[in-house]
Write a structure and sequence with these properties.
Helix content is about 20%, strand content about 25%. It has about 210 residues and is of the alpha/beta class.
Length: about 210
């Protein structure tokens, strides 16, 4: 299936710092958001957390954060992420926590876990998106990062909605969302939510 074939929406979303970083320095397994990067996801955790403390994504979200999150994921049936996100999240304990199928874009497809985990390893962006669309059926596909996957999706012209969450922090280093991106993309604001932990903006990609 070509990435140009239209079915459900493709929604890409990610959280950045004010200086455009999606991680702090030294992101790695066990420290997936890098040094100081936990602050990017205070909104996901409902407040401050660290890598060493117990934390449950989505627990304790503010009403504004939840409204954005629910609108973003409305109608989604499958997801797509990069290998770095998968590894740095520790494969979410070995099972896809988001429901449906999460396609992992990677050259190391021999690492495919049991299909019952909800993960599918696929090499190549177009092939990975095709598998995510197939898994989603008529539902939407959520692309959750990392930055390189979102850049590939925008370059391919397949993103219908783009969600950018900005955390109130300057990290001063780390991986930048639009590093090396040279495309001109027009966006239309769909909604804006804010909480003490983030400003969330949903955009439609204008074609």
């Amino acid at each position: 299936m070509s990435t140009t074939e239209r079915r459900g929406l493709v929604k890409a979303a990610i959280t950045v710092s004010l200086d455009g970083c999606i991680t702090g320095p030294d992101d790695r397994p066990g420290q997936g958001l890098g040094v100081g990067g936990e602050r990017l996801h205070y909104w996901v955790m409902g407040g401050p957390w660290t890598y060493e403390t117990d934390h449950e994504p989505g627990a304790g979200m503010t009403d504004a954060d939840r409204a954005y999150y629910d609108a973003l994921l409305e109608g989604t049936s499958a997801g797509l992420c990069g290998r770095g996100m998968y590894d740095n999240a520790g494969a979410w304990g070995g099972r896809n926590p988001f429901g449906g199928t999460l396609v992992v874009l990677t050259h190391r497809t021999a690492d495919q876990p049991d299909p019952g985990t909800g993960f599918l390893m696929v090499d190549g962006f177009e092939e990975a998106l095709a598998e995510a669309r197939r898994a989603a059926g008529d539902g939407a596909v959520a692309i959750g990062g990392g930055a390189d996957v979102i850049r590939q999706a925008l370059r391919a012209g397949v993103v219908d909605e783009l969600g950018i969450t900005t955390a109130p922090v300057v990290l001063g280093g780390g991986k930048r969302l639009f590093e090396g991106f040279d495309r001109d993309v027009d966006l239309k604001i769909l909604s804006v939510h804010h909480s003490p932990y983030a400003v969330h903006a949903r955009y439609a990609v204008v074609r």
